[in-house]
User: Which sequence fits this backbone?
């Protein structure tokens, strides 16, 4: 019985070695297409243009509305859209008019002060204020989503008024 076990183990070991030794060879290139056939090897795609901004993209949006034209800022515990914010949102609406298939998400943010729940609610009110203004000047509401991040995604780190002022914001992001 012991010899049968040893024989079986030897056969198993030998067959494993044979199977392991049968690896696939890597094909370096496909053979040419046969004469008279209508198919051939595909031509490689042309290289992508370097530093070209795609119309309707987030980069295009930022280029058209200005360096900080994707955001509006708020006072402490406020969510009203002031005259400066209206000008920013009007530039965003003009860009959206040029790109009728573009959709956006308006992100509401808060500074680090206050509870998590309070800041989520405040961020939501800020995002909705921006959305409501955009819809009031003609942007279709179905093109705009809102989300609140509260204090979870600060733009500026720090525990001073300068950092807090940058974190009390609504940011517009294009959706691809």
Assistant:
């Amino acid at each position: 019985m012991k010899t049968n076990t040893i024989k079986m183990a030897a056969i198993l070991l030998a067959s494993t070695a044979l199977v392991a030794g049968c690896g696939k060879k890597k094909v370096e290139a496909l053979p040419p297409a046969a004469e008279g056939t209508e198919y051939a090897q595909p031509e490689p795609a042309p290289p992508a243009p370097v530093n070209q901004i795609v119309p309707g993209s987030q980069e295009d949006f930022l280029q058209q509305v200005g360096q900080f034209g994707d955001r509006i800022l708020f006072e402490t515990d406020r969510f009203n859209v002031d005259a400066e914010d209206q000008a920013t949102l009007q530039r965003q609406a003009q860009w959206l008019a040029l790109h009728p298939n573009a959709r956006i998400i308006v992100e509401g943010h808060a500074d680090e002060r206050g509870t998590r729940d309070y800041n989520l609610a405040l961020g939501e009110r800020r995002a909705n204020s921006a959305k409501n203004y955009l819809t009031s000047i003609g942007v279709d509401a179905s093109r705009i989503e809102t989300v609140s991040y509260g204090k979870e995604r600060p733009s500026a780190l720090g525990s001073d008024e300068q950092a807090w002022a940058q974190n009390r914001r609504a940011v517009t992001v294009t959706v691809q």
